[in-house]
Amino acid sequence: MNKNWPLWEVFIRSKAGLNHKHVGSLHAADADMAIQNARDVYTRRNEGVSIWVVESTNIAASDPADSDQMYEPAKDKVYRHPTFYNLPDELKHM
Amino acid sequence: MDTALLEQHFNEKIDQDIRIEPKDWMPDHYRKTLIRQISQHAHSEIVGMLPEANWITRAPSLRRKAAALAKVQDEAGHGLYLYSACETLGVDRDDLFADLHSGKAKYSSIFNYPTLTWADMGAIGWLVDGAAIMNQVPLCRASYGPYARAMVRVCKEESFHQRQGYEIMLTLCNGSDEQKKMAQDALNRWWWPSLMMFGPTDKDSKHTEQSMRWRIKRFTNDELRQKFVDVTVPQAELLGLTVPDKDLKWNEERGHYDFGEIDWKEFFNVISGNGPCNKQRIEARKSAWDNGAWVREAANAHAEKKAKRKAA
Amino acid sequence: MQDQNKFNYIIQQADNCLILGQRLAELCGHGPVLEQDIATTNISLDLIGQARLFYQYAAELQEEGKTEDDLAYLRDAWDFKNVLLVEQPNGDFGKTIFRQFLYDTFSCYFYEELMKSSDERLASIAAKSHKETLYHMKWSGDWVIRLGDGTEESHNRIQQSVNELWSYKDEIISVNAVDQEAEKAGYGVSLELIKEKRNEKIKAVLEEATLTTPEGDYAHKGGKEGTHSEHLGFILADLQFLQRAYPGNEW
Hints:
The complex is a heterotrimer of chains A (94), B (312) and C (251). With 312 residues, chain B is mainly alpha-helical. Chain B has one domain: Ferritin (Up-down Bundle). Chain B contains 13 helices and two strands, in the order ααααααααααββααα. Chain A: It holds the Pfam family PaaB.
């Protein structure tokens, strides 16, 4: 019954106003412990103000083999970017 | 896609310095090489805690004690980051531990040397961490994403380690005769093992060529060793210490220091288990792990019960 | 020295912090799992940090030009005023945890009161330390529950540590002459007040951990007066070795 503690992914908000960002992973028996461990392992140098943990097996990820169909189609949709539109230089506040 | 095409695509990414990520296709041999290298690196971090932990309780001031604790703790953290990077390749940390405990896995041979005096804490920080940083900085650009990211974190945290080591040496060298003697003695014992940390010479290194090709490694063992000697010798002079190598000499023509022949017999002896502390180091790791089994089981059992109670 | 009693009062807590911090430091590199190795080292670092703040203040009050290190490294066992609890050996992880929990349930409420000290310096050290010990108490309490509720083996092991350490739990809230005078003067705290909160917390955690409260309320004492268990001599031999072997040097 000597089984590995499950793996958790750790996300940390480095300061108020910023997104939580993935910083790494660790092992813990449950969510409470995972948060404590994340605090002890990943915020020793003041790196965070908030922690999220997610058990790694609960993360659904896209398949790199599908990269072409997933991400290529967005590449030529230039009209989604503001620079696509030609406007006179005199125009202000836009 | 057939394997040849996948491999071609993989090689293109390597050539363009595009990072390989965990779910990307990769050659089996690349995966195995990474697992070997990253786990060895992780093992080195946690076995490396032991020689220094040895002196934490005896640190000669509270300031030094706090610094030593923080440093050795960082090494636990670095081991953890690296094991995590390794786990993205589909291995379990517990299995990696099992390989370490059985003697199957290797770790840096330097940690099989004993720490005999307080000056060893200085010498390890200065020389061993210095050599490690030299090895590690290029790894921040390693082709495997999780490894490179772990190394970025490691290098950022390590920057204080070498400084605290050098500060210990500096204080000793400015101190009493006995303290100076302690510092010189530590340099005498750690100098050659530190040079060995860069691994066998290029002509004897069986992994270097492939690892360079895959950009897991960016410089050869000999290049890094030379760089280490070049920066460390002036640091020893600043301390007023003598590097224990009668062949050490500045070579104007090469623009590098020439240095003596490393005792490779000793190196291979230590690697194959005959270092002064190999058995003690593994025994210490194994007993920590074995004595912790009931704790880990208890935490699992409690987590399961708690989940059940919540569901009920 | 302006205030001998204040000095003594500070030393009691400084010594508690240092000796427990030192005990935990012994474990660095030997934890049951990497994540917990890091956690105990964090606690050790917090405790040594607290010890330093107290020693620095005590050294100033002493007005003899001494430093934190003189107080930590150059006093003998009879000068140390820590309670017997903190010098008890680490034992297995369960014993380390329960010793920690007994200490945390004191220090957390102690600092909560000391934050209101009439002495500003003490109040500010307490405020900083209180935040740290709140986390320690959560951590050690969670582990008591985990081990008590976990497996049959873990339950039996930690129950045994509870039984072993039970007679060391009350010295830390027993009032001596130094405490009395400190409270009267306004810079010290009421240990009576702490006792209640602490006992409730211990009771609640033991209950959740399905552990049995031992019978009997005998309390080993002596540490606060400088009469220690045999363990302290060895702790100091380790801690003070270099300062004693090479007197008068800078490190």
